């Protein structure tokens, strides 16, 4: 970890710096409290000065919202086409995240937050960061994400296909978009293959592994390259009493051996993630998608199938064409024997104010049934 330095009460101070988005420690840090105006805070943050908050916690949240409103006064401009509009949107969101990320808080040696009206964040921070390692400075936006993740982990996400809740961990993509889970729950299982072994590649929370186990597979191997996802999948398998049927392995993309069914729900958008938390949505250059397809045929048992769950949002944004996708499938020695489609049900598909509304409104999520050629 890096170190952040500031002056407080005429004394030099320092602490460890942590950023899930890999932001470098700010070179200029000013102490701020309830007396600072939103215009002043916004101006300093835009100039690159970080503000270490020493006032009331709820006032800090209000200041963050006020700074966000000032940024949002200038909405991202639309490009000449969907791809340019997407990149301009991502650039604007990145600028917004950087500016708001300059409002900082100090976690004490035990992960506690020494601010007026501050909540007890020790458990939430321990879940996200592990055991405390000394005073640490993080952005308030990151802390709010940690708190939100703790609440999701505690109450879970209802998954109708399971008749149960999945409990996402911090940094693991939550199955809030249930249409892709429903596709796996309803698709016809391979006819010529058995129900002995299934692989869930890039398992995340383990939700698809749980669906496959509930559908009758005796042995489901769930993999992921993220240690947080592996811990999350194991936790959910235990909560669902499926540890005897779900084996979590990794960090790796594929496990050893062959399977009657190999399922993968890779990140849908081939763009560079701006933080570790975005890896569930953005796949730089479509690297994971290509790796899955390239390695799939060698992992299929005789008569087995691979199920690729993929949205066409990237196609609608001009980031990938259907022809390119089909070419990658063919080059991997695979052919598609069927495809099941569904429409998204999430609120953003109906948000006409979203710069990407046209693409989101027409989006289709598909389950591609693939076999070796």
UniProtKB/TrEMBL annotation:
The record lists the organism as Streptomyces cellulosae
Per UniProt, the keywords (alphabetical) are: Methyltransferase, Transferase
Q: What is this protein called?
A: Methyltransferase
**Is Methyltransferase tagged as a keyword?**
yes
Biased-composition ranges for Polar residues? 1-13
Query: Organism classification, top ranks?
Result: Bacteria, Bacillati, Actinomycetota, Actinomycetes, Kitasatosporales
Methyltransferase in keyword set:
yes
Which parts of the sequence are annotated with region: Disordered? 1-29
Question: Which biological process annotations from GO are given for this protein?
Answer: methylation
């Amino acid at each position: 970890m890096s170190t952040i330095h500031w002056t407080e009460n005429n004394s030099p101070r320092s602490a460890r710096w942590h950023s899930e988005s890999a932001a470098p420690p700010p070179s200029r840090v000013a102490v701020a409290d309830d007396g600072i105006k939103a215009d002043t805070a916004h101006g300093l943050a835009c100039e690159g000065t970080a503000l270490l908050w020493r006032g009331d916690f709820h006032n800090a949240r209000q200041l963050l919202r006020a700074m966000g409103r000032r940024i949002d006064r200038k909405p991202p401009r639309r490009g000449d086409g969907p791809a340019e509009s997407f990149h301009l949107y991502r650039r604007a969101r990145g600028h917004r995240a950087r500016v708001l990320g300059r409002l900082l808080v100090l976690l004490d040696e035990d992960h506690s937050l020494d601010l007026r009206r501050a909540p007890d964040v020790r458990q939430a921070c321990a879940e996200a960061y592990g055991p405390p390692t000394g005073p640490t400075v993080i952005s308030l936006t990151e802390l709010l994400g940690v708190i939100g993740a703790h609440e999701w982990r505690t109450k879970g996400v209802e998954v109708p296909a399971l008749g149960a809740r999945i409990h996402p961990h911090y940094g693991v993509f939550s199955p809030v978009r249930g249409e892709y889970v429903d596709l796996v729950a309803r698709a016809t299982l391979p006819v010529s293959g058995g129900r002995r072994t299934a692989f869930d590649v890039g398992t995340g929370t383990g939700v698809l592994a749980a669906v496959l186990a509930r559908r009758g597979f005796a042995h489901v191997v769930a993999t992921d390259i993220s240690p947080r996802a592996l811990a999350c999948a194991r936790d959910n398998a235990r909560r669902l009493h499926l540890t005897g049927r779900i084996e979590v392995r990794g960090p790796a993309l594929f496990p050893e051996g062959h399977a009657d069914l190999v399922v993968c729900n890779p990140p849908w958008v081939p763009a560079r993630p701006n933080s570790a938390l975005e890896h569930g949505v953005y796949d730089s250059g479509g690297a994971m998608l290509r790796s899955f397809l390239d390695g799939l045929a060698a992992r299929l048992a005789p008569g087995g199938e691979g199920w690729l769950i993929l949205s066409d949002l990237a196609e609608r944004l001009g980031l990938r064409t259907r022809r390119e996708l089909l070419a990658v499938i063919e080059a991997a020695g695979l052919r598609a024997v069927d495809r099941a489609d569904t429409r998204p049900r999430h609120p953003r598909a109906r948000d006409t104010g979203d710069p990407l509304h046209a693409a989101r409104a027409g989006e289709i999520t598909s389950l591609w049934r693939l076999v070796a050629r």
